[in-house]
Specification:
The chain is mostly helical. The protein is 47% helix and 2% strand. A two-stranded antiparallel ribbon has the order 1-2. Helix 3 (92-110) crosses helix 7 (164-182) and helix 6 (141-150) packs across helix 7 (164-182).
C-alpha cells in the first residue's frame, strides 16, 4: 500500500518540476524572430528635430559612387551655360551605343531618323520638333543632354532611365543623324565617295 506521504511528496515534486519549466519558459526570448524595428519615414518622438525614426541627411551628403564632381559631364552645363563640346572623345563604339539607346528610348517619338515622326506620334501623340531644323542643328550639344536630363515640354526626364554616359552617347548619335541629313559629297572620304558614285 502506498503511503499518503509518498503521494504528497510526488505531488510536491511534480509541482516543483512544473514551476521550474515555467521559469525556464520565461527565460526564453524570441528577439531573433521578433526584433524591434522602425520604419525610417514613420513618425517617432525619439528624435526631436525631425520627428521621424531616421536622422535627416547631413547637408551636402553624397551617396557612395555619386560624387558627380565633373559639372559638364553630369549636367551638360558649366554654370548656367550649355556646353558646346563633348566631355570625352567620341568613338565608333560611342556612336553604336548612342544608336542603340536612341532606338530604345528616343525613336518611339522622334523616329529612327530624328524627323519627329515616331510610332507614338503616328498614333496621335503630339510630334516633337525634327532634329534637322536650323534651331536644333545650331544648338549646343549640351542642349540635348540637358533636355534628356531635365525633360522639355511634354517630354519627361530620362535621368532615372539613362545613365549620363549614355545620354552623351545619344547626343553624339543625334549629331551624326543631323550630319547625315545635311552632308555634302565633298565631305565624304575618297574611298567611301567612290563606292557611292559606283552605285546605280
Amino acid at each position: 500500500m502506498i503511503r499518503e506521504s509518498t503521494i504528497r511528496s510526488a505531488r510536491v515534486l511534480h509541482l516543483c518540476c512544473l514551476a521550474l519549466l515555467g521559469l525556464q519558459g520565461t527565460g526564453c526570448r524570441r528577439d531573433m524572430f521578433q526584433q524591434p524595428y522602425s520604419k525610417p519615414l514613420a513618425t517617432s518622438d525619439f528624435f526631436q528635430d525631425n520627428h521621424m525614426a531616421s536622422r535627416p541627411l547631413v547637408a551636402h551628403t553624397v551617396a557612395r559612387g555619386h560624387l558627380d564632381a565633373d559639372e559638364a559631364f553630369y549636367t551638360g552645363k558649366i554654370g548656367t551655360n550649355l556646353v558646346e563640346g563633348f566631355p570625352f572623345p567620341i568613338t565608333r563604339e560611342t556612336l553604336k551605343r548612342g544608336q542603340e539607346r536612341f532606338d530604345i528610348y528616343c525613336s518611339p517619338c522622334h523616329g529612327r531618323t530624328g524627323e519627329g515622326n515616331g510610332m507614338i506620334v503616328q498614333r496621335g501623340f503630339p510630334p516633337p520638333p525634327s532634329y534637322h531644323i536650323d534651331r536644333l542643328r545650331q544648338a549646343p550639344v549640351g542642349h540635348f543632354f540637358d533636355v534628356m536630363t531635365q525633360g522639355y515640354g511634354i517630354m519627361y526626364s530620362y535621368a532615372e532611365r539613362v545613365e549620363p554616359a549614355d545620354r552623351w552617347a545619344i547626343a553624339a548619335y543625334i549629331r551624326a543623324l543631323q550630319k547625315s541629313q545635311h552632308a555634302k559629297l565633298a565631305e565624304v572620304p575618297p574611298e567611301e565617295r567612290r563606292k557611292l558614285e559606283a552605285q546605280p
